[in-house]
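User: My advisor, Dr. K., asked me to get a structural model of this assembly before our group meeting. I'm new to this, so sorry if the format is off. These are the inputs:
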Amino acid sequence: MKAFRWGFVTLVFLYLYLPIALLVINSFNVSKYGHEWRGFSLKWYEKLAGNEALMQAFANSLVIATLAATAATVIGTLMALAIYRYRFPLRKTASGLLFVVMLSPDIVLAITFLVIFIALGIQLGFWSLLIAHITFCLPFVVVTVYAQLNGFDRNLLEAAQDLGASESRIFLLIILPLIMPAVIASWLLSFTLSLDDVIISSFVTGPGFEILPIRVFSMVKVGVSPEVNVLATLLLVISLTLVTLSILLLKRKKPQ
Amino acid sequence: MQFRRFSIVLTLFWLGLFVLVPHLLVVLTSIMTPDSEHLAVWPVSGESWYRLREHLYLQVFWQSLWLSGITTLICLLVGYPFAYIIAKLPRFWRGVLLFLMIVPFWTNSLIRTYAIKLILGNKGLVNSLLVGLGIVDEPVQLLYTEFAVIFGLVYVLLPFMVLPLVSGFDKLDETLLEAARDLGAGFWQRFRLVILPLTMPGVIAGSLIVFLPAMGMFYVADLLGGAKNLLLGNIIKNQFLVVRNWPFGAAFSVALILIMALLMWLYFIANRRINRQGGLQDESL
Amino acid sequence: MKRTLLAALVLMALAGAVKAEERIVVYNWSEYIPEGVLEEFTQETGIKVEYSTYENNEVMYSKLKLQKGKGYDIVVPSTYLVSLMREEGLLHEIDHSKLSNIGNLAPDLMDKPYDPGNRYSIPYLWGSTGIGVNASEIDPATITKWADLWDPKWEGKLLLTDDVREVFHMALKKNGFSTNTTDPDEIRIAYEELRKLMPNVLVFNADAPREPFLAGDVNLGMIWSGEVIMAQEENPDIRYIYPAEGAGFWVDSFAIPAGATNVDNAHRFIDYMLRPDIAARAVEELGYSTPNAPAKELLSDEIRNNPVIFPSTESIQAGEFQQDLGDAMEIYNGYWERLKTGS
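Assistant: The format is fine. Below is the predicted structure of the whole assembly, which you can bring to the meeting.
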């Protein structure tokens, strides 16, 4: 029985990792088309470094992802707080709207963004992209932070209020430190979502500001660029590092 | 007071301007008249909504539903035992395996989909193995088939099924199982009467988190399925960018959201019925 | 968290300030500029190139329309889009006096009905859509016309380009109609023909039709002439066939959108691309044909005599150039959706 279990788990992991393994291996493959192994080489890594357009797109993506993740985390945390803590009109509507964003398929969201940007006269480009990314990350931030807020000891907050602390002090000194793991997790999640997004970005980005997923989409459809393999390997290494770091960070925050 | 007002205003402002108003605009567009020059003009017209009834579009809808459904089912069949095994492991290993499961998720889904081509192609890994081992004479057509699309969708969405399930198994009270065993219940009885009902919230949540995105992932179908079949996402994209019939595209989008909302509502009802002890308590979810 | 946000904003502002250099925003088909040309252009002129790509005329047109012609300095539309965009005022007039190399262009592709006097477009590359075949699997001599693709023995084996005009071109030519017909009956007949073809189709591909050939997933189908040339580098068995009923011909031209901000730079870019050596490299690398006469001289005999790159007069006669169809596109698009859904 045990062997069966481990066999099954191994099989699933094989399924998950085989394509990625192939990508990594092929990034060192001399052959351009990746259908046969023709020798070890680092030339595609060099080519990637030299591909200015791709590097630019990569840099743009990182900038957007960082800014969007940060903004979404800040705004989302405040939103989660507001919904959790305060009674205000349209509170349920706000939850509902976040919900709508979460369940809408990317393409529908893309259309809504396109429509509002045209209506507001916002030129498609950096800002439209940023706003769109922040918006679609928000529900995930709110859900994550809210879940952690839910397990809160209300007495703490009441005690602080009784002692006369202002809302902002309560937030900064009591709530924020205790929800920090959720905040960090939200940031990481938003960062990933932003980096991965293709459909929404392709609709709302403008000329001259190419981001990575769109570039990758063109390259992937062409199907033959080994630079994609290199990129995949690099992204994998980056994300592995980020996730490991975050776990270590969270582990250290645990003892309260 | 300042802080409180600020967070409330921020919430309402952002959601209002970038979510509520855009969606209302889309609904508005759906009742306008298409125009090749200005994309959508007055007068009000119900023609776009009327067109939704065409057999063609119902077929597209059905096709998307079918694909998403099969994907969800397979994710469930694979993910359920997988989550069970992982949940029963000691804490450290559980963390490691979950971590390993999430890592692929951090690689761009497009790139991963493209990698599947390397596996399923005629000169790809699977076929090379099959032909090399002499199991078949000619390569089997795996790529550009419905099989490839489902393979790809499951590939991208499996982690989304496993995570809620693991959380569900985690909350499973071992003592209940032990009690059942003591009372003489066999494996299948224990499964049917104890495990399944208590993990049902996780099953439903996981299914939803897989099904909904699957409905929208048309690029996986395009890349792996040979772009032969139009799915809901293709139609919308087509109408907005190629045909430029914005009212119709808008009507389609709104219809899609409504259907998703319907499914979510069904989820709520199901969840409420099951919400005895092991239900998901998050009230905003 | 506030501090990092502030720092990011400051960084962004700085980055923005540095960018006040000469630039040009180019929007082109994917894989449609020879390698290194953009970098060399920047080195020589100091103009930084921001480059994005599209795989489909329609997407480019839609994006441009949405932004009212602003944002891009160079686009590369095909013939029928040039006439459409010209009429809608989406294009900026091109000042020929700024193009020192304009004399290089052979007259037979200039001054065509879609753009009289070439006031709005300068031809870049032209090519054809025909039949591609993997000679190591299928004998090229057995495939001579579009009609051959309809043979039931190719069930589930064909590749078609993901373009409504090109796919319909096959069926229209097969029935002796014009590829630019607006007659609903003719279009309907073509649609019926295509429905019969659908079971034979394995994959639609508009980004790089050569890729499935090279991957061994497909051995027969529609393909662009240049794709075959590029494929032959990796696998010389991939061949191109001009179908007897007529291949589809098209011309892609440089155009400047009406709202372009760097009009002078755009002219310099076009002028640069009109240089014989640059045009020759485009032919060598991308496999399409050039209207640039001195460039042709620079090419090797092998390339000049390659009928795939430079088709014979007979092939051109038999074939047909695409033109704008106006409102009739609605009919085509409706059928296209039905074909793709299998109803």
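One thing worth pointing out at the meeting: Chain C touches chain B at residues 56, 58-59, 62-63, 65, 88, 156, 162, 201-205, 212, 215-217, 327, 330, 333, 337-338, 340-343 (CB under 8 Å).

User: Perfect, thanks a lot.
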